TrEMBL record:
This is alcohol dehydrogenase. Homodimer. It comes from Glycine soja (Wild soybean). Its EC number is 1.1.1.1. The keyword NAD applies. Keywords: Metal-binding, NAD, Oxidoreductase, Zinc. One of its GO terms (cellular component) is cytosol. It comes from the Eukaryota. Residues 51-181 form the Alcohol dehydrogenase-like N-terminal domain. It catalyses: a primary alcohol + NAD(+) = an aldehyde + NADH + H(+); a secondary alcohol + NAD(+) = a ketone + NADH + H(+). The keyword Endoplasmic reticulum does not apply. GO terms for biological process: formaldehyde catabolic process. Residues 227-344 form the Alcohol dehydrogenase-like C-terminal domain.
Length: 397
């Protein structure tokens, strides 16, 4: 499928809301029926949006490690089948439910897993990007409004939602708080590149900019050079960091490592990674970022930060019940540790401006998209991610 320009109208996208509005749509989706089982690409039913909901025609969707963990069923408490996974996408509004005023039919949008209602105590607080109602919740599997699903099999069996978005479907229904509208005159990004803003790049760059506030001339260590880790590196580069150390067991990642100035493979030497980083940076980095979801790596990242002022930002998804590998007394050395969700961005408030910055070249997006495949080859796309051969593989319908 060719990438349509932002200014294109509905005709170029083959979208005719007048024919589908208020009706149940039959469309293609990749459905997960059990942990680790191959996806079933089949026709499903997508029901009309209800009050304060939006139905979106997905143009592109991609895969990140959160989808991988959910597909594998790593956390038994979060398992729910059948389910439509996926949470990073771009698309066009097909129809809206009662009360929706922020977007309309034909708008270019991205769905966001960490919503922003704009009305709750958290949304009104500048110190957080959480939302009391629509914040990220891996346990949630139905719509907020009535507690039911907008998806079903052609035989009428409900199919569960995932992370407020469920983008492995040609059409999806999301709460209006989980939709960000983009206007073409505000930036020059393609719809393909907008896809990256709904999760990975925003999470990584935002962690560097909003959570850590990386400063010019600082030193940075990034543990895990997947798309999120490389987005951290790109964000640190844009902020003028003097040294960006990438840590990964896959040496091929350094070739793709935007912004990375030094590379460490933990398997190359017996000396602990944090000791090597301390030697390279005169005692430790200003900022370290853990992007793997591994507690041993988290400890290395924490000890890589400089005593007195070093900050460690946790981005990896830790599915196991293992607690932080840090003794409380170690915090007295002056190192700090904090978590970051969606890079600290408030989706609806901040992403349009972030898109403008990306369009101006402040953050370079093109290198993040390494593969494109049709939805029917979703199992291949997952394999590319598992084997470390892709950063972002875009799926199209």
């Amino acid at each position: 499928m060719a990438c349509p320009a932002m200014a294109n109208g509905n005709d170029s996208l083959n979208l005719k809301p007048s024919e589908t509005k208020g009706k149940t749509i039959t469309c293609k989706a990749a459905v997960a029926y059990g942990p680790g089982e191959p996806f079933v690409v089949e026709n499903i039913l997508v029901h009309p949006p209800q009050k304060m909901e939006v139905r979106i025609k997905i143009l592109y969707t991609s895969i990140c490690h959160t989808d991988l963990s959910a597909w594998r069923g790593v956390s038994e408490a979060q398992r729910a089948y059948p389910r439509i996974l996926g949470h990073e996408a771009s698309g066009i509004v097909e129809s809206v439910g009662e009360g929706v005023s922020e977007v309309k039919e034909g708008d270019i949008v991205v769905p966001i897993f960490n919503g922003e209602c704009g009305e709750c105590t958290l949304c009104k607080c500048e110190k957080t990007n959480k939302c009391e109602i629509y914040g990220v919740n891996p346990m949630k599997k139905v719509m907020e409004g009535d507690g039911t699903s907008r998806f079903s099999t052609v035989h009428g069996k409900p199919i569960f939602h995932f992370l407020n978005t469920s983008t492995f479907s040609e059409y999806t229904v999301v709460d209006s708080a989980c939709v960000v509208k983009f206007v073409s005159t505000d930036h020059s990004l393609s719809i393909k590149n907008l896809t990256l803003l709904s999760c990975g790049v925003s999470t990584g760059v935002g962690a560097a900019w909003n959570t850590a506030n990386v400063h010019s001339g600082s030193t940075v260590a990034v543990f895990g050079l997947g798309a999120v880790g490389l987005a951290v590196a790109e964000g640190a580069r844009a902020r003028g960091a003097s040294k960006i150390i990438g840590v990964d067991i896959n040496p091929d990642k350094f070739i793709k490592a935007m912004g990375v100035t030094n590379f460490i493979n933990p398997k190359d030497e017996e000396k602990p990674v944090y000791e090597r980083i301390r030697e390279m940076t005169d005692g430790g980095v200003h900022y370290s970022f853990e992007c793997t979801g591994n507690v041993d790596v988290l400890r290395d990242a924490f000890l890589s930060a400089h005593e007195g002022w070093g900050l460690t930002v946790v981005l990896g998804i830790h599915a196991s019940p293992t607690l932080l590998p840090i003794h409380p007394m170690e915090l007295f050395d002056g190192r700090n540790i904090v978590g970051s969700v969606f890079g600290g961005f408030k989706g609806r408030s901040h992403l349009p401006h972030f898109a403008k910055q990306c369009g101006q070249g402040v953050v370079k997006l093109d290198n993040f998209i390494t593969h494109e495949l049709p939805l029917e080859e979703i199992d291949k796309a997952f394999d590319l991610l598992i084997t470390g051969k892709s950063l972002r593989c875009l799926l199209h319908f």
